[in-house]
Amino acid sequence: MSTITPAASVMLTRDPGSRSIYAILRGSQLRFFGGFWAFPGGKLTETEAADTDALPARRLAACRELFEETGVLVARTPDGQFPRIDDEMSRCRKAILDEHLAFEQFLAQRSLTIRPGDFACVGEITTPAFAQLRYATTFFVAHLPNGQEATIWPGELERGEWLDSADLLGRWRRSEVLLTPPSAMSLMGLGDRPIGDAPALLGPLFENLARGAIHPILFAPDVQLIPLKTVALPPSNYTNAYLVGSGPRYLIDPGCHEPAEQQRLFDVIDAGQPPTAIVLTHHHPDHIGAAEACARRYRIPIWAHARTAEKLASLVDVQRFLNDGDRLDLGPSPAHAGPWRLEALFTPGHASGHLAFFEPFYRLLFAGDMISTLSSMVIAPPDGHLGDYLKSLRRLRELPARLLLPSHGNVSARLIEVIDAALAHRVKRETQLLEALGSGPIGIDELTQQMYRGTPEPLMRFARAQVLAGLLKLQAEGRAHPADAERWQA
Ligand SMILES: [Zn+2]
Question: In the listed set 210, 244, 259, which residue is the last one of a domain according to the structure?
Fold first, then answer.
């Protein structure tokens, strides 16, 4: 399982009584929320993380990150003043960024200290367990000292801007910017209130999340990711359900079987309008676990592709068949910019009845199990078909999608890179397969042993399915065929 990295983040304001906040745009190349707007911050250094007195260590990290990223130094001279940021200070900022100078040493040399009251603690948020990169981030509110200015140096961050917090939220609603879910949650929690009210307004919300409530993970307005514990294949033990829309509202892939986890899902759904329908991307158990329970509780139908309905005949009652090109109306968009909808895309390959969904206003791709940000997808014949899968994947690559919302793993703004990596992986596997076939007839088990050496035993049957899928694809292309009952040859 993933480890949790301690981090600190700063809501920097020019005036705690106003909504003025300093927001930064993260570089598009970054793996963690590249291309998203957020607040300054980052992970603790090893020394900071080793400090057992957690809050002062996080405050120190907040002060350091703020200085590194924006050049703003919220530390006090012995006479209680804030320092002037001159050229020498900027050289130190560079040295600290490059790890040539320890921040503590820099503060000590100048007799600077951090006052707890200068970093008002809002609370802590831990990335839920569905993501591979997880941070336990403490949020602080700090005030820009008189005479200092915030400046971003090009690199990991693209730019920074002073914005009105409600305006930033408005830009997000209009699909002009991406916001990290904690930033969106914080700004929504603040509403029209000044930044200085953040500890009082957001503190109780953060505490509730720490007690185990499902995080309101919003990647666009009224588009909520709900990570649910399921019996999925390692490395994933979560499946993301999505709740989309506020008028007509659709619940995509409620996958959890356990009653306690289903109750957590109900708690999220009950906070808003009941859904209009449950929509399934495909029939696998980790996507349908709560479908019947939700259908009963909210008296709503289940929709899926006809082939998915066929697979689920004895388990789930599918009441409407969805086809490629079908549009699911979502009512007026949150930006009041005309109609809002989901478009069904028939994308067979991982499963014969697989559907993905595209939302054109925020340009969201609900990819189901077509692609994940955790690992490559299993293609298990006869229902799985590698040739179809690659065709479907290339089709998704052509969409003008800005965000990839997969069933497993975190959301990514790098759809093309993620798909290209998946395609390259398949090419590599095919090359390996052809090489192994080159030395004469060989059985599937032996091929699997050769190609998937080191794979944990419980996963070997999935590896075997991958090999079979590869062989069937080569056979369809006339590049391999069975030599006898057990063996294959090129
Ligand atoms: Zn699946």
Answer: 210
Alpha helices (H) in 408-459, listed in sequence order: 415-438, 444-451
Residues 180, 252: one domain? Answer: no
Q: Give the separation between CA 461 and CA 73, rounded to whole angstroms.
A: 56
Q: How far is the CA of 171 from the centre of ligand 1 (A)?
A: 35
Clarify whether residues 231 and 342 are in a common domain.
yes
Task: Kindly give the distance from the C-alpha atom of residue 85 to the centroid of ligand 1, in angstroms, as a whole number.
Answer: 55
Structure tokens at 366: 């609900």
The predicted-structure confidence for 407-423, as pLDDT tens digits, reads as follows 999 899 999 999 999 99
Q: How far is the CA of 277 from the centre of ligand 1 (A)?
A: 20
Let me know whether 258 and 316 are in one domain.
yes
* Helix, strand, or coil (residue 228): strand
Q: Tell whether the model's pLDDT for residue 122 goes beyond 80.
A: yes
CA of 77 to the centre of ligand 1 (A): 59
Listed residues 155, 186, 210: the one ending a domain: 210
Name residue, tokens 């509202």.
249
Ligand 1 center–CA 370 separation, angstroms:
8
| pLDDT, tens digit, 9 for 90 and up, residues 470-487 | 999 999 999 888 888 788
Instruction: Report CA-CA distances (Å) from 70 to 23, 43, 150, 439.
Output: 10, 16, 5, 60
Residues around ion ligand 1, judged by CB within 5 A, are 284, 369
User: Which are the contacts of 344, defined by CB distance < 8 A and separation ≥ 6?
Assistant: 322, 323, 324, 325, 326, 327, 328, 355, 356, 357
Is residue 187 domain-shared with residue 239, that is, in the same domain? no
Burial class (CB in 10 A: 0-12, 13-18, 19+), 270: exposed
- Residue range of the domain that includes 128: 4-210
User: Are 441 and 483 a contacting pair, CB within 8 Å?
Assistant: yes
For residue 420, being part of any structural domain is answered with no
